[in-house]
Write a structure and sequence with these properties.
The chain has 324 residues and is of the alpha+beta class. The protein has five helices and 24 strands.
Length: 324
Amino acid sequence: MCTRVFWNTNPAVLLVGRSMDWPTSTQPKLYVFPRGIERDGGLLGSQRVVTAHAARWVSRYGSLVTAAYDLGAFDGCNEAGLAIHLLYLTATDYGSLSPNRPVLHAGIWGQFILDQAATVAEALALQAEYQLVKVRALGYDTNLHLALEDASGDSAIIEYLDGQPVIHHGRQFRVMTNDPTYDEQLTLLGQLDFANATRETPLPGNVDPISRFQRASFFLHYLRQTASVRQAVAKVLAIIRNCSVPFDAPYKAVGSIYNTEYRTVCDLTHRRYYFELADSPNLIWADLDYFDLAPGAPTLQLDPNDINWAANVSAAFTPCPNPF
């Protein structure tokens, strides 16, 4: 399910936070990828899922990401200060495939953008050259929409509806959750009046996507600027925690649960990436500028499930094979 919040009105630092809500563990791992990696958009792990016109590319930018099931990056940022976040959207329809454009499966969509683009505008231009295909992994379809933002404060939301991309591009698109579609979320948000708010101002308090969208928008609207990066990160984390799904909270179907598994914050100004497992007391982070991102440098990995990790874990990453 998930929530994404972009604070792009604080001059000292631009921050974007997200939560990952899912019925089972996504087995998250953190990876650092250098430039110069050859990728194949038709491979889902070791399985070929695109047999014709699979997109192939070589990464132009190094990146630090959180992977799901080692099948693709669902969150992360690159060295140019561009970040991506894949969230679930039931209404997703990527449409029929054209024989004239390269194809990549939706699970590697985010990594494709991080590898190739430095800004939101570049990512949107790149997006028009390729097409996506839905795949099924571990029992779930990749019905996804994408939020992206860059170090200038630019933002975009990309959804595929009725076979066509629907793009919301601009600094004002700062919050994203899940169902319904983004246009419907904005319509519902516009029906609320948050002017002259106090603690008595009623807010939706449940864990459904509409409630989380409205709650995140409310608290983001009232964030006060700060020159302290530490305090700014704490403010964004406070909103993401407020919009997280508590353990065992009832969800859409009777008996179903979509616990928040982890939360992240990307510092687009200083290229620092924060990560917090919901069942860990420790917040960890890594500095992208610390790593060797030159072509030929090793891919690095860190398993965040180790309870001993805390604070800056940049030096704890170790070499590993390229997972995707």
